[in-house]
Specification:
Blueprint lengths: L2 H12 L12 H4 L3 H4 L2 H4 L16 H13 L4 H13 L6 H13 L3 H14 L3 H18 L4 H4 L5
Length: 159
């Protein structure tokens, strides 16, 4: 038997003749290889696991210092927005120092919309309009220095 006829026999056994149907494929071709299926969830992990109770006993001062440090280390828009989401996710209003660090980080990465959103986040987190006005008074100098407008200034006819 010549080598070409052996090759033809081998290819006929692998490839079904006629119309292709998935049920005709050998079972080993349909299943996922075991090496790929073992750690499928960990293949797509981009962050390390954190324990849920890492910041349970954190005081407000420690919270403020931690987020000031994180905003000072921001290098791109994604980090800035992630830190803002984390900061505003807590059941408290961030301190003026944390917010000023966030505004300076927004200026550093040249992200005007996020700087405006910081003030919207403050407005959503405070309990009364008077508290919002106090935050605006404390951050007024920095806001004017950085050229950040409020949403109320940008869209006066809304709300």
């Amino acid at each position: 038997m010549s080598s070409t006829s052996i090759f033809r026999l081998a290819t006929r056994a692998v490839r079904p003749s006629g119309v292709f149907r998935a049920s005709q494929l050998p079972r080993s071709r349909v299943q996922v290889p075991a090496a790929l299926a073992v750690n499928r969830a960990s293949n797509f992990s981009t962050t390390c696991k954190r324990l849920s109770g890492a910041h349970d006993d954190e005081t407000f001062e420690e919270f403020s210092a931690r987020f000031e440090k994180e905003f000072d280390a921001v290098q791109d828009v994604f980090e800035l927005q992630r830190n803002l989401n984390n900061c505003f996710a807590y059941d408290l209003v961030p301190s003026v120092e944390v917010l000023s660090a966030a505004l300076r980080a927004a200026r550093r990465v040249n992200d005007f919309p996020t700087a405006v959103r910081v003030f919207e986040g403050i407005k959503a987190k405070v309990e009364t309009p008077d508290q919002y006005k106090l935050y605006l008074e404390k951050l007024d100098g920095l806001r004017k220095e950085l050229g950040v407008a409020l949403r109320e200034e940008l869209y006066p006819n809304e709300e």
